[in-house]
Write a structure and sequence with these properties.
single chain, 70% helix, 203 residues, mainly alpha, 6 helices
Length: 203
């Protein structure tokens, strides 16, 4: 949206600092933030309580898969773009080859992104936590021999894991960039330890 790239410029530095802080803490898209968590949390709740609510496995399975599908569509197409300025998709070129496209919102003229810190926390917390819960469910269903639930749990892992993978690629770039970032981080940690040992020596 064009409105997301527009920011008011204050005449006074104090007012500018206040407005900048409020933009960071304010939830600018409450509906998107709600539905970002609603579908995925609802799918987990239905999975945990479905045996208490009904004895029909088919009804539970269909309900969970519908919630997971709605969550996948909403997160991929709506909440990621609005809450953190990221989106990803797959397109097929004229030669029939499939390409994955990862985009991030451009930095504004003032050098800061327009997404708020509160929305960013909500987005990444929901995006990372829920797939981990489905992985736990997968191991639980496997070790407790609930074979009929494995298909549902695997669907949860695949759909929510795909969104997690896509948005991590959007955030950090290509796989080569991800590898170089990890290498640079480990290198910095190693140099920091070397400097610390060079300054501090046991007596």
């Amino acid at each position: 949206d064009s409105n997301d790239d527009i920011e008011d410029v204050s005449l006074f530095d104090a007012d500018d600092d206040v407005s900048r802080r409020s933009k960071k803490s304010k939830i600018r898209h409450p509906v998107a933030s709600f539905f970002h968590l609603f579908f995925r949390v609802s799918a987990i709740v239905v999975y945990l309580l479905c045996e208490l609510l009904t004895s029909s496995f088919i009804a539970c399975m269909v309900t969970i898969i519908l919630l997971l599908s709605c969550d996948f569509w909403a997160v991929k197409n709506v909440t990621g773009r609005l809450m953190v300025g990221l989106r990803w998709w797959n397109q097929v070129d004229d030669d029939g080859r499939s390409h994955w496209v990862f985009e991030a919102r451009k930095v504004s003229a003032q050098g800061s992104k327009t997404s708020s810190e509160a929305e960013s926390r909500i987005f990444w917390l929901g995006l990372i936590t829920c797939p981990m819960i489905w992985v736990i469910f997968a191991f639980s269903a496997l070790f407790s021999f609930k074979v009929k639930w494995l298909a549902v749990v695997v669907m949860g892992v695949v759909l929510q894991g795909a969104n997690l993978y896509g948005y991590i690629r959007c955030k950090v770039g290509s796989r080569k960039n991800l590898t170089s970032m990890a290498t640079n981080y480990l290198g910095k940690q190693f140099l920091r330890q070397v400097r610390f040992l060079g300054v501090w020596k046991p007596s």
